[in-house]
Amino acid sequence: MQENYLAKWLNNELSEEELATFKKSAEYASYQRILEASNKMEAPEFDVDLAWDTFKGNQMGNEPKVVPLRPFKQFLRVAAVVAVMIAGSYFYLSTLNETFTTDLAERSEVTLPDSSEIILNADSEVSFSEKNWGKNREVRLEGEAFFKVAKGKKFAVLTENGTVTVLGTQFNVENRNGFFEVTCYEGLVSVSYNNSEQKLPAGSSFVAINGEIVGSQGITATQPSWITNESSFKSIPLKYVLAEFERQYNKVVKTENIDVEQLFTGTFSNTDINLALESISTPSQIRYKLGDDNVLFYAENTP
Question: What is the pLDDT of residues 183-230, one digit of tens each?
């Protein structure tokens, strides 16, 4: 690599031929990773010209005047920028969390550093710090996930609605748009919600909707139904049922003349859309129209 390629690359001065040659060099990949990481961080303002002028002023007071060489000044500019990029990138990358996400109609499995397992439901995100995992077993969740936690130090799941703490157990957490539910399938979990704490033994769940606790529910299953491709609900407002249908099938849900606050109890399939539509519409006494990318739910008496 020619010595001035780095400076010209940083200043966007490379020709197409020079850029092609630079990208083939062994150094290019490293510089590109550093640049991408530095673009994500907010570094304090640094005036290179002011620093250079200050440096010159200090030197002129102690040394004879010399004629400045512009190539050397340009080299110092590049060196300063690269030093800031490397230092900042190291700090950014060393604290970066591992993040895993799922799209609509998608599911994913994540293995944590201590061999604990997470199964992410559709449209969900979980993140954690792999570097600090040995000291702090803590994950952040948006959406829904089933946890199989290896025994060890305290394990915490942080959400915007509440915190779930365990030592080693199996449990499910759903945290979506005003809906917060924690279900314990094995062991014991602690749920912190609105400055209060509640213990959940195996076979029980905690539900809060729009900031109001709606009570604990008993369960007999050994894992959440969505693990086996079904979505189950017990006295849950219909709007949350429709939102889950939307996530599982990646269809835009529209409603017309129906009460989305009516409570729904039932199950729908996550793999058969026609069966799912019948499972939702029949007990709710509503109708539906299935389009290419959307579903309209409407009242039976709608014109």
Answer: 999 999 999 998 889 999 999 999 999 999 987 778 889 999 999 999
The domain defined by 229-299 folds into Phage tail protein beta-alpha-beta fold (3.55.50)
Of 3.30.230.10, 2.60.120.1440, 2.60.40.10, 3.90.190.20, the CATH number of 98-225 is: 2.60.120.1440
Q: Which long-range contacts (CB under 8 A, 24 or more apart) does 297-300 make?
A: 297/242, 297/253, 297/254, 297/255, 297/256, 297/258, 298/255, 298/256, 298/257, 298/258, 299/256, 299/257, 299/258
In SS3 terms, 111-137 reads as ECCCCCEEEECCCCEEEECCCCCCCCE
Q: Is the pTM of this model over 0.85?
A: no
